[in-house]
Write a structure and sequence with these properties.
heterodimer; A: about 200 residues; mainly alpha; Arc Repressor Mutant, subunit A; about 70% helix; B: about 450 residues; alpha+beta; 3 domains; four-stranded antiparallel sheet; 10 helices
């Protein structure tokens, strides 16, 4: 008896795939003619803005940086290759870089978007046994010892809940290296916690 | 100098972003707006100063050249490519303040890499999904997503020094110095990456698409799992192995001690678990050594277990107290799977792995439309899944070739405690033998 589920060629692609294929077509079109970038811009605008807003306090600056991200994306669109890096993550990568540039130029305290749920998760990772409220406070205190890049890894991993693969693509390193870096960062936090 | 941070904890919803203005951005991208100056004022100022110094220096030597250069700079606000590339080279050598060599400052715009697919290669080496022989047509085959439901513990050590130590869940591993071999049996040396993950809940097993089938005299039997693990040691992506003379030793913490238990290894070719030669099932969990794990609290986490999960479990009619569930990181977010008993005094039994081979798990096959990672074989009615999202459907091909689909409805993970009392879980598994059945299944779930 035939037990396999056969899917015929006429079976239409599910919505998500159709969307991805359509996006690649849009990108190719935009590579030829910049005006065609418009649907991509509207699709990703709010996501990029939110990404920037979580990292920068000044609302005006958020808007400016979001514009710069898209401007740079459009300028560098011919360099984008679909292989291995989804378009959205490519934009996040540019945004991440722009936020870094912003703080290098402006001597301001870095804004860190924190979710208490993520703090608890880190606390559990550190196998801290204190009460919840204290846990969050202690973890928050230890986070202060992190370098900006380490902090970004923690934010993207624990607060924004990004997958390792996605994070690796945004940061521009391979996944193994990323796992090791996150592991080291957690170890650093653990040492900090013990010290306090 | 230590970087200072302003933590914004659980901020209130922000005002909506300003209305997007594509035309403005387009104009800037074409270099028609004033944003280039706005964006690049610092780099341009730097260049302008250097340019001015160079121009002044030249002014004393060659007036004509000065004039032409000055016009060139003024009329073309783009940074000359020679200066641009020099600037970038310098940035690489001398990272900006706050950037260590390990975390080099990124260039403003991602540049084309000479090695464009490191991420892809890495993910392939981890799950080897491309080597699977699922019989889906090409249209969907290239849409198999890699899921990462059970994260690895990663340890880096020197092959010459070996490694001995506890793993996160209380198991204990020992790798003898100099026992790791490269393909071809030459000794490995230098840093090696040790990857380990423990798969002991039925949810984790299903999420990883690990089969539960064993083979005896040509007949397939369901293997009752008492905890399983994946271990891999690699160097620069190359899998290393040990020799029977100096095997990797792993004291594994099983779920239960059992009178009839034996270690099995997964044979990738057949998808069958094969009993390790020389081990006797009747001997049960042969306790080569026994000790109690020094855990302050009973297992709070394994595979990302959290106390929050326990609360979710407690609010469920379908799961019992004193059980834990796991948050599994997947392609779409976190999922929770219930079913692990609290072990207050977990017993360690020793299992020896004769070789560290390619004991890799099967990649999860997701039906492209859906983000799920949960699949359930029929007949496993006890599997309960909680997690993030609303409705997910997965298609899963069992080792015997049959297709299974599962449907799960979840409350979002962000659901707060107050709502957990009303938690409802719906869960359906179905075996599907034809496209018509698949479509009917989707339709019945209101998916299509």
């Amino acid at each position: 008896m035939e037990t396999h589920l056969s899917i015929s060629d006429s079976y239409s692609l599910p919505a998500k795939d159709r969307a991805e294929n359509a996006e690649w077509t849009e990108i190719q079109r935009a590579m030829e003619q910049l005006e065609a970038f418009e649907p991509l811009y509207y699709r990703y605008y709010s996501r990029i803005y939110e990404f920037v807003q979580r990292r920068i306090a000044n609302t005006d600056d958020c808007g400016d940086i979001t514009s710069i991200v898209f401007e740079k994306a459009m300028k560098n669109l011919p360099k984008y290759k679909a292989q291995g890096l989804p378009f959205g993550n490519w934009l996040f990568r540019i945004a991440w870089s722009e936020v870094g540039n912003y703080y290098r130029q402006q001597q301001k305290n870095r804004k860190v978007w924190v979710q208490s749920e993520g703090l608890l998760e880190i606390a559990t990772e550190l196998e801290d046994t204190a009460e919840e409220n204290n846990e969050s406070k202690r973890v928050l205190k230890t986070l202060e010892a992190l370098e900006p890049e380490e902090m970004e890894l923690i934010v993207m991993r624990y607060f924004e809940k990004r997958s390792y693969a996605e994070l690796a693509q945004i940061v521009g390193i391979n996944e193994s290296t990323l796992r090791v870096r996150i592991h080291r960062t957690i170890e650093k936090l653990r040492k900090q916690l013990l010290r306090k | 100098m230590m970087t200072k941070y302003d933590f914004d904890i659980d901020p209130a919803p922000r005002p909506a972003p300003p209305a997007p203005d594509f035309k403005k951005v387009l104009k800037r991208a074409r270099g028609q707006g004033n944003s280039l100056w706005g964006n690049m004022q610092y780099p341009l100022l730097g260049i302008a100063v250097i340019g001015a110094v160079l121009l002044l220096r030249q002014a004393f030597t060659d007036k004509n050249t000065v004039t032409s250069n000055a016009v060139s700079v003024a009329s073309n606000t783009q940074i000359p490519s020679s200066i641009q590339s020099n600037g970038m080279a310098q940035q690489k050598e001398n990272p900006a303040p706050g950037h260590s060599a390990a975390y080099p400052a990124m260039e403003s715009v991602p540049m084309e890499s000479k090695d464009p697919i490191p991420v892809l290669e890495q993910s392939l080496s981890e799950t080897e999904i491309r080597r699977e022989s699922f019989s889906l047509p090409a249209k969907t085959q290239d849409r198999i997503y890699r899921a990462d439901p059970v994260p690895y513990d990663t340890i880096v050590f020197l092959a010459e020094a070996g490694y001995e130590g506890s793993l996160r869940n209380g198991s204990y591993v020992s790798v003898e110095p100099g026992s790791l071999k490269l393909p071809g049996n030459s000794d490995a040396s230098g840093k090696v990456l040790f990857l380990y993950r423990d798969i002991r809940s039925i949810g984790a097993q299903i999420a990883l698409s690990l089969p539960s089938v064993t083979d005896s005299a040509g007949n397939e039997y369901l293997l009752e799992n008492n905890g399983s693990f994946e271990v891999r040691i690699e160097q620069n992506g190359t899998a290393l192995h040990t020799t029977p003379a100096s095997p990797l030793s792993l004291q594994y913490k099983p779920i239960h001690t059992h009178k009839k238990a034996a270690p099995f290894v997964l044979e990738n070719e057949t998808g069958h678990w094969i009993q390790i030669p020389g081990t006797d099932e009747k001997a049960g969990n042969k306790l080569v050594s026994e000790r109690y794990v020094d855990v302050k609290n009973p297992i709070l986490r394994a595979f990302g277990y959290t106390r929050r999960t326990e609360r979710v479990v407690a609010g469920s009619e379908n799961l019992h107290r004193n059980k834990e569930s796991a948050f599994l990181l997947t392609h779409g977010g976190y999922f929770a799977c219930g079913g692990l008993l609290h072990l207050k005094n977990p017993v360690i039994s020793q299992v020896e792995m004769p070789t560290v081979g390619e004991v890799s798990v099967k990649g999860l096959l997701l039906y492209p439309k859906h983000r799920t990672t949960m699949t359930v074989q029929s007949g496993t009615a006890q599997n309960i899944a909680l997690g993030q999202g609303e409705t997910y459907v997965a298609l899963f091909q069992a080792p015997n070739g049959s297709w299974y689909a599962s449907y799960n409805s979840y409350l979002p993970r962000s659901t707060q405690n107050s709502r957990l009392q009303t938690l409802k879980i719906t869960h359906t598994a179905a075996r599907l033998n034809s496209l018509a059945e698949w479509n009917a299944f989707l339709q019945s779930m209101g998916i299509q």
